[in-house]
Amino acid sequence: MRDLSITQEYLICAMHGKGKISGFNVEKLVCVVASGLLELKMENCIVLEKKKVRVTGELPAKKMYLKPLYNFINQPKPVKIEKIIEEYNYSFSDRKLRELIGAVGTSLEEMGLVSITESGIISKRKNYVPTKQAVHYVVDLIRSELLEDGEITEDIACLVALLERSKIMKEYFSSFEQKEIRHKLKEIVNSDSGLLIKEMIDYIENLIAIMTVLTVMNTN
Amino acid sequence: MSRQRSMEVIQQSEYVTIGELVRLTDMRYSTLKFYTEEGMISFEQAEHNLTRRYRREESLERIYYIKSLREQGKTIPEIKEILKNN
């Protein structure tokens, strides 16, 4: 199996089944954007501030599937997080989000990890259905780190935080495993070396909070 | 905490973790865990954080050998006997 990134692994778990994410599943949709932002941060391409995001480095060639998101942030001035959420998760058209999912989905298709199907009658949309092997692979990686003694990588801790926040864990892990994993994640967050993971979890919460505020403001 | 190692790095390492064996062999974690618990794959345990470390080349050879025996229709007790006599 080739190297997979957080965004690719998150999409494999989030799109399992029909190969798409329902428009009603706000947390999953926000976490797609969050996974992209966190991956860009881990690659030192961007800096995440409380309310803004700014580009600090070039996008590596191996991360071209994040180009739509990177290009959106790559502005002369830092981009407000609200603006990102508005464009990706709260716009009338979901063009930006589809563009990002399409780029990541295509990278997975090139590796043979998803198959493409089409849905929709008037406007055809591509769905990226993960293979059983791809799903097992990602789930096993999580098990092999979080259910074993020893070091846990930032990549897996971050992926688990995204899956946990978007309530996907229960689809793949038994209640016993979920309990163990949550306990491990809590230990990491409370440890000195877990500062980065704590920041990432706070960031995911912040994005979901912004989305909630936007929803409330527009329904009142 | 550190970042996940790339396949390029893993493929050149003397020691790997069980997760890295999953990545190298495309086998299920539960299968490798079972082989480990049954003493079919050997490991070393680092004292400071209890991480199980596997010798990459030796473990891969052993895993593929077990896999070939399974494909020949051998049962786990039979394989354990074969490994013991090797």
Q: What level of helicity do the residues of chain B show?
A: 40-55%
Strand order of the largest sheet of chain B: 1-3-2
Oligomer: heterodimer
Contiguous runs where pLDDT drops below 50 for at least 5 residues of chain B: none
- The CATH class of chain A is identified as Mainly Alpha
Tally of individual domains of chain A: 1
Annotation field: number of helices of chain A: 10
* Total of helices of chain B: 5
- Straight-line distance between termini of chain B: 40 Å
Helix/strand-derived category of chain B reads mainly alpha
Number of strands of chain A: 5
Q: Report the β-strand fraction of chain B as a percent range.
A: 5-15%
CATH architecture designation of chain A: Orthogonal Bundle
| Strand arrangement, major sheet of chain A | 1-2-3
Q: What string, H for helix and E for strand, traces the elements of chain A in order?
A: HHEEHEHHEEHHHHH
Extract low-pLDDT stretches of chain A. none
Task: Report on the biggest sheet of chain B.
Answer: 3 strands, antiparallel
For the biggest sheet of chain A, the summary is: 3 strands, antiparallel
C-alpha Rg of chain B (nearest Å): 14 Å
What is the CATH first-level class name of chain B?
Answer: Mainly Alpha
Protein name (chain B): DNA-binding transcriptional MerR regulator
Organism (chain B): Blautia caecimuris
GO molecular function (chain B): DNA binding
Keywords (chain B): DNA-binding, Repressor, Transcription, Transcription regulation
If you had to describe this structure to a student in words, what would you say it looks like?
Chain B: Residues 15-85 form the HTH merR-type domain. The complex is a heterodimer of chains A (220) and B (86). Chain A is mainly alpha-helical. Chain A has one domain: yeast vps74-n-term truncation variant domain like (yeast vps74-n-term truncation variant fold). Helices cover 59% and strands 10% of the residues of chain A. Chain A has helices at 6-14, 26-42, 67-73, 81-89, 95-110, 132-146, 154-165, 169-172, 175-190, 195-219, and strands at 46-48, 52-55, 79-80, 114-119, 125-130. The longest helix of chain A is centred in the last third of the chain and has 25 residues, at 195-219. Chain A is globular, with a radius of gyration of 17 Å. The mean pLDDT of chain A is 90. Chain B has a three-stranded antiparallel beta sheet with strand order 1-3-2. Chain B starts with 6 loop residues before the first helix and ends with a helix. Chain B is 55% helix and 9% strand. Chain B has helices at residues 7-10, 18-25, 29-37, 56-71, 76-85, and strands spanning 15-16, 44-45, 52-55. By secondary structure, chain B is mainly α. Chain B has five helices and three strands. Chain A binds chain B through residues 1-3, 42, 133, 136-137, 140-141, 143-145, 148-157, 188, 193-194, 196-197, and chain B through 1-4, 6-7, 17-19, 22-23, 26, 28-30, 32, 46, 49-52.
